[in-house]
Amino acid sequence: MKKPILFIFFVITNLIFSQAFKIDSTQINNNFFPESDLNKNENGIIAIEKYNPLFPPNTFTNNDNPNYWKNKMPHAGYWQQDVHYKINAELFDSTDVIEANQTLIYTNNSPDDLNHVFFHLYANAFQPDSYLDKLKTGNDEITKYRKDERKKKGTEIISIEVDGEKVEIEIDNTIMKVFLNKPIESGNTVTFDIKFKSFFGGFEENGNVRRRMKMYQDFGNKHYNGVHWYPRISVYDRKFGWTTDQHLGKEFYGDFGCFDVELTFPENYILEATGNMLNREEVLPDELMKKLDIKNFATKKFNTPPSTIIRYNPNKKKTWKFHAENVHDFAFTADPSYRIGVAEWNGIKCYSLAQEQHAAKWQNAADYAAQIIEVFSTDIGMYQYHKIIVADARSGMEYPMITLDSGTDPGYRGLLVHEIAHMWFFGQVGTNETYRAALDEGFTQFLSAWGEEAIEGKYMTRAPKYVTDSIYNDKNVGLLYRLNWLKQNQSPLNKYYDKHTNQRNTREDNAYYRYIVDASENNTPALNSHSHDTHVFGKDLAHRGGYTHVYWKPATMLYNLQYVLGDKLFLDAMKNYFSTWKMAHPYLNDFRNSIIQFTKVDLNWFFDQWLETNKDLDYAIGKVQKLENDTFAITVMRKGEMEMPIDLTIDSEFGLRYNYHIPNKWFVKEDKNIGTILPRWTGYGELNREYTFKTHVPSGLKNVMIDLSGRLGDSYAINNNHKGNIDFSIDYGVYKSHNLKKYEIKARPDFWYNSYDGLKIGTNIEGHYLKKHHVFKSNLWVNSGMFRGEDIDDNENDKVSYRLKYSTSLYKYVKNSRVRFAISALDGLNYLSLGFNLKDADKTKSIDISLNGFERKETSDIVGYLLDEEYWGGEEKKNTNILINTSHRYRYTQGQTLSGTGNIELSLKSSSIMSDYNFSQLVFTAVNKNKIGKLRIHTRLFAQRGFNHTESQYSNDFPFESMLYASGANPEEMMNNKFTRSAGFIPSDWATYSTNNTNTFHYGGGLNLRGYTGYKMGESESDMINENEDFNFLYRGTSGIAFNTEIDFTNSIPYMDYFGFNSYLFIDMGVMDQNYQDNQISFSSLHMDAGLGFTWELSRLWDDVINAEPLVFRFDFPLFLNNPPAGENQMDFRFIFGINRAF
Does pTM top 0.70 for this prediction? Predict the structure, then answer.
């Protein structure tokens, strides 16, 4: 009798003490758990189990779980649902499918009775006719499905029961509705038993639809990322009730609870997953761990075949067992070649899993993960789990306790910081990222900048372009692959790039860069918008385009919140937000309310402008006026629509620095460097655009600067200083990150050559802000006469050449518009142009209007410079015109076999005032690039109708240089290319026309009948004999129609594209108007050519390191002409050379 009495006494005593003394425990690791209270399990049965998230049974809902929402309710009346998943699954690697039995114990904590529930079947998104497929089709995305995806194999529900009873279901792609036989009453718990299969879809490389649950093969080993692989109950929350967004390839949302999962794999697989590995001694015994230690492979040559530590036997299996609490998802990764690194911080195990072939460059991954955990635990809030995994998995995704990553050190450092940061905002603070991705991705992007700056410093550690280790002597790899590897990794240009490129600022690169670039043209979205809203975030369905602002804009916003509040108050507020909402589900209003309530500062003005609008932030230093006795009147201007407090710094001529702060509200932050607090600047909209104050600066004022901390998200920072807003540098010709704070001007020497001026010696000076504002390029050359032809008179050529181009955004007047101006006196041609361009929001449609004029002053400007002087209208003849061009870019698909991109252009050109000619032309061009299997089929449809408005018999009022040419571009178009605007690089005799034969040099354009290059085509033999009557020839005119096609088979030839080579078959056909002189259309007979062509994109040797225009050499063999010159056969060997692609 004593034992039952003692038991009852113990229960009553615990009940009394548990109510009298509330345990306050906010931090947890695997070495310490609070004393137990009376706890109820999910079936409502009293159990005496202390909270232990590492081992069964489930203690998630215990009273002593400091992370359970009921023990730390964010606010009165808050509720969320509880889940406990029990999954027993087996992977069948012969069919790449998971078969599993799942039990879900679901507790309804809402005030509502639930008559039905919803589940997510994420894998169903990646198949034809899915919502994602329809979205991609609607946005002209090109899709190629893998083997099982084509069969619509995603997640198959074999059976489902609720509390032992069969139920009806309805599946709508990625959402399954379960009709309950009886409601789940408020406070009650039900059990779902589900038998299902989930397919991996097929090898990743065999399709292009981005998915997270994926598989791929490397050195004969199959790799599996098991994510979003089980039926996951939808969240029923206080805002929406059931959240039933279809999965469209982006974000997720899940209930917190407990997972007990057993995964059976072939025994050669190494596996890690969410939760505590319960049978580690069984599946990863010490002896095996020693073999798998990543340090064993520190000197292994990178990307060479891995060793076999456990031999594959399809009949031998191994079961991995995991238990996880306080999580809302479960994921795993598995690969036979995984090798394991281990580090630890504060009792938290940090594991790295790297494929053996990459292990040499993953040596620091576990230690780096530990540093990241330490930074965020210290600055934001303690990491609540016992482990973190970073895995080499061709991905960049986050799941509770595990991140699937890619790359190598040091390039992967930023990715590791970002994905581990998700453990705070996604993993522990469980937002509805499907609805508002900014709360997840944006806060994580902020932590990415914060963490990387804390670990790496002000500048990021950049992976060098030049790689020291080499695979050139590796006989296991093909010679061409090795040569390509050398080109990409050990080119001398790589060393040059590493030496001369700039360092990337850690904070700017991770938080500000993309935001500032788009905000400078007022092109950022309102963040409080649905994550799938393509009207707000653009049509790019990947994590690109406008959608990137769910990353960049919130990250910038949080740094600006720090700027407003001051460092300490901001960090305390962020810690409070994390502590309040960890293991709970906040929305944007919860975040802003948390910050406002904690700081007791009215920040509604701040959050309204950052979250609800696309207003820009732009402050500028205006007039600085010296008064008497070293007193200065300084004006600050608010040019943008956002308002912010302003930190100002004044440097004196004596070298002293004075700080000032202009509040915009009643609140003033605490900052030891705040300096003098000036009167408040109340201003928004058109109220108080300017603010002027007076201050005494002993010894005189040298400079006035806004925000030296670099946190203010000013979208046009080049007016933030009184002086020093320009960054001058030497242009080494390599790619660099743009300077967000200053206008950039860079200069370099510039040399060119033509056979008339000889060597041109000069300078190239370029300037811009973010390549969008006040972009200019100027050249000035002295024409030395060196190395030119011996028979040229020294006084005939131009002594000096120059060129100036300028363009800038007009976004303040018309969004997505630009204006441009150009003037030059170059290679005998004087040129002037003024243009305007307008694009739609997606930048797929545009209209361009320009006024253009050019002339050649003297005969020598024609005879001396041009490849063939016969084809220019004459000296001292002004060719001025107005050109209106509209274009539309598009993408298209047809089933699984055909996809492509295209561009349609329609232009109207007419002579204008001051012109010595009187003509007009209407041009239509449609270029499509199609993919059919390995083939690339490019087509071009061209039509031009020209008008000679004076109907001169010899077309003197339709300039020769602007006419339509049958074989290629007209001389006017050739002036746009430095290789063809004058003789020198192309031998002149390659570009002349003849009645007897074709020639060698071709420049794409016109009808593009490349086989007839240099041939004065005629309709009859008499045309070809009478050379004096030029209008009888068909090689140029005013109107014509052509169709050109190239069938590119480069992908069918292994390694050919490694070095920029392309191969194709081509066919060109077209007709030319014979009577352009009287504007009466009379088309010639059809002219055709066909043959084989090759291009060498020489710029591929440097295109990722050197900032230079593309350079393409083209070698075409038009073996067939249907109307060849006299004496030639239709089938004959012919060769032409070109600088650019034909089209």
Answer: yes
